[in-house]
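S1.2 Input.
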Amino acid sequence: MAKTSANPKTFPTLHLETVLIRRVKGHVCGVDEAGRGPWAGPVSAAAVILNPDDLPPGIDDSKALTEKRRAVLETEIKARAIAWGVGFASVEEIDDLNILHATGLAMCRAIEALSVQPVAALVDGNYRFKLPCEIQTVVKGDSLSLSIAAASILAKTARDRLMIELDAEHPGYGFASHKGYNAPSHTEGLRTLGPCPAHRRSWAPIRALLADA
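S1.3 Output.
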């Protein structure tokens, strides 16, 4: 007899969006970020207002998708959404403001980049960022809300492209492969070359290297 999983895979839906739209009587976007943890590169955020009548099939948490699938869905989301926007906060802003406030800044920029401004936003996580519209936080939102999942895809693909560009500008660290996260090639590059302008000076490993220089 075949066994069935006790915890079958669930996919995000538009349930949270539908409930919130009914209450606020206007457009609702999903918001998510990428790149809060790396040692290098900016933090990115995306905001997406999906068209419930024209949803790209297969939208899911970006972490659950392959790079190839994320690339396909990025194109589909941008072509079929009511509106989408991407924002960044720079390495300098991360070091000046701290990563939490820099993430909020990237989210504000993503929402402001939307061609249609939302009345409310569903935001992944539990922190109530100060954004230019009403917000509702959703823990594990990228696995529950289609709009947040779509935003997670756009934030991830946009940041990955930028890290590949930074790899060309600053070779030797492996940014194209690990996207600025902790990895053996990254550690070796730092040991050999020291930090470059793309590194977050306020991060403990980078701060320690600078102190020893």
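S1.4 Remarks. The first helix runs from residue 15 to 24.
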